[in-house]
Amino acid sequence: QVKLVESGGGLVQPGGSLRLSCTASGIDISRYGTDWYRQAPGNERELVAGILSVGNTFSADSVVGRFTVSRDNAENTVFLQMDNLKPEDSAVYFCKIRGADYWGQGTEVTVSS
Questions:
Q1: Nearest Cα to 93, choosing from 31, 50, 30, 29?
Q2: How many angstroms separate the first and last alpha carbons of the chain?
Q3: Per-residue confidence at 19, pLDDT binned at 50, 70, 90?
Q4: Which helix (H) or strand (E) holds 25?
Q5: Could you say which of 7, 21, 39, 110 is the most buried, measured as most Cβ atoms within 10 Å of its Cβ?
Q6: Listing from the earlier edge strand, what are the strands of the sheet with 57-59?
Q7: How far from chain centre, in Å, is Cα 89?
Q8: For residue 48, which of 23, 73, 18 has the smallest C-alpha distance?
C-alpha cells in the first residue's frame, strides 16, 4: 500500500521560511518524480514545484527563486524548501507521485503577520 505523509507546515511571518517533507512508504520514491501542489480556499489546486526521477527540478513562475525541491533517497523523502514566504503562499500543500494517483493528506501553510 502506497502512502505519502506531508509534514512541516505551520504559521510563519512574511519573509520567513518553512521546509515541508513528503515521506513515502510502499513505493521507492527515487524511481518516480514527485510533485508539490497547493490549494488555497476557493482556488483550484495548482502545481508548485517538483522533482523528476532523474533529479531535475522545476518550479512555477510564482515561486521560482524562493522554493526549492530536493530528495533524500535513503529517507524516501522529498522536501520543499520555501523561503521568502508571502501571504499569497498560504494554502494546503500536497505531494503527489508523478504519473500515479497517489496523494498525501496535505499540510497547511499560513503566512501572516
A1: 50
A2: 40
A3: very high
A4: strand 18-25
A5: 21
A6: 10-12, 107-111, 91-97, 34-39, 46-51, 57-59
A7: 12
A8: 18
